Amino acid sequence: MIRSWIERHPLSKIPFGCLILLLLMAGFGAVTVAIINASLRSSDVFKQSMSQAAANLQVREYLGEPIQAGWFISGQLKVNGSAGRADLAIPISGPRGKGRIRIAAYKNGAWRFTCLQVYVEGQSQAIDLLSIQPPPERDF
C-alpha cells in the first residue's frame, strides 16, 4: 500500500495546521476591516466631509482633482437612531498631493461639525472647512 507524503511525515501536520490557522485569522481580519471600512464610507458624516473637502478651492489647489478617499479610515463613529458622535481621520489624495480630513461631529437629527479640517502633507497650516470666508472684493 502506498502511503501519502503527509502520512509518512506526521510531524509536518503541525506547521501546516499553524499555517492554515494563520491564513484563516488573516482572512477574518481582512474581511472585518473591509466591512468596517465600507460602513464608514456609507455614513452621512463621511459623505458630507468628502463633499466639503472637494468643494473647497484651497484643497483642490493643493491636491488637484479628483479628490479621493484613501483606504484606512481611522477613528470612531457611533450612531444610535437620530443621535451620534464621529471622531474620524480620512486619508485623501489627488493628482498633486495627499492629505487627511480631521472630523469631530455630533448628530442630533442632523450632523453638526465641531471640527472639519484638512491637513495637507508639506503644509504647516490646516485648512479649516468650517470657516466662512467672504468672497473676494471686486472693483466695479
Task: Note down, in words, how this protein is organized.
- The protein is 37% helix and 33% strand.
- It has 140 residues and is an alpha+beta fold.
- It has two domains: 7-34; 44-128.
- Strands 1, 2, 3, 4, 5 and 6 form a six-stranded antiparallel sheet that branches.
- The longest helix is centred in the N-terminal third of the chain and has 29 residues, at 13-41.
- The radius of gyration is 24 Å and the shape is elongated.
- The mean pLDDT is 88.
Q: Which structural category fits the helices and strands?
A: alpha+beta
Give the terminus-to-terminus CA distance. 100 Å
Strand residue percentage: 25-35%
Q: What's the average pLDDT?
A: 88
Provide a count of the helices. 4
**Percent helix range:** 25-40%
How many strand segments?
Answer: 6
Assign an overall shape: elongated
Biggest sheet, in brief?
A: 6 strands, antiparallel
What's the helix-strand series? Answer: HHHHEEEEEE
Low-confidence stretches: none
**Tally of structural domains:** 2
**Alpha carbon gyration radius:** 24 Å
